[in-house]
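User: Teach me something about this protein's shape.
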Amino acid sequence: MEEQNIPGAQAPAPAPAKTADPESLVKPSRTRFWLKLIAGLYAVSLLSSFAVIAKVDGVRKSRPKDLDLSKLTGLSSSKKDVVAVIPIFGAIYQTDSSKVWERGSQQIARRIKAAADKKEVKAILLDINSPGGSVGAVQEIYSAILRAKAGTKKPFVARFGDVSASGGYYVAAACDTIIAEPGTITGSIGVIFSASSFAGLMNKVGMRSEVIKSGKFKDIGSPMRDMTPEERKLLQGLIDDSYDQFVTAVAEGRKMRVEDVKPLADGRIYTGRQALNIKLVDKLGDLQDALDLAGELGKIGKNPRILRDSDPWEQLFSMIDSKLSFFGGASIETALNASPRLEYRWYGN
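Assistant: First, the predicted structure itself:
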């Protein structure tokens, strides 16, 4: 059907074109900008990584395999020799995660092994500022030191900071030499098992705990009831055995008789100067004194070069993790650590 033009009639006005919402245009453009920026940074990081790998690979290929640099006149590897410094700060426990930047006993033991395996490391300094921790975690670090010493023959020096007590001292007992500040708090050689009881409070508010267990000792240490005499006797046996392990470790590390260690190992604490008088430490001094001694034991002299246990990526992730823990992570970790456990720890701080 053909359209007819009616004289005098006006043609219908065209529909107004839809105008785009300014905000709908801005959002996609911003998103595209950030995506491009991230992609660009990622590409730059990849190119930089490939460049570094290629450079290292080229150096390795260009170096003759049979070239012994130590035999060349004027070239000495001693300029690269270092003392590795490994900090052991805070309470010592096994971590509940596999985060490489955590400072649990597993990670500390791994760092000790890694430092001992490096050719340029001639001595290892443990910078200890710890009140101790759980028995298993402390013994894990202690064993790592003994294993590294037996495998590499490299000297270990322990340096005490503010507090190096109980498990902190247990770890140091594996080292060749111990240096403490005159006012360092140390000692506290012993074992403790702590468990809370809310039985009285529950009786007051009318609450009780119903437990179904496979044996009478299965809920030992439960805070829901008081401890029985049999349970106390059983736990005392654990304490005595762990205490014997502690005293033996101190006697072997300090080259003392067990009979001479036991009078010093009743849980009391000492200053660094007092500990020197009873042969629990070897010298008084600060961190620089400990570094000088480690350098001398490693035969690279005083004021040695230092290899610090500080991976920048681990530090970055640790900082991020600490910020995130502000939203509840720290309180959860504290609650987990409050559970009953056998400990080489001083609770004075």
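Now, about its shape. The chain has a mean pLDDT of 79. The CA atoms of residues 69 and 194 lie 58 Å apart. If you'd like, I can walk through any region in more detail.
User: That's plenty for now, thanks!
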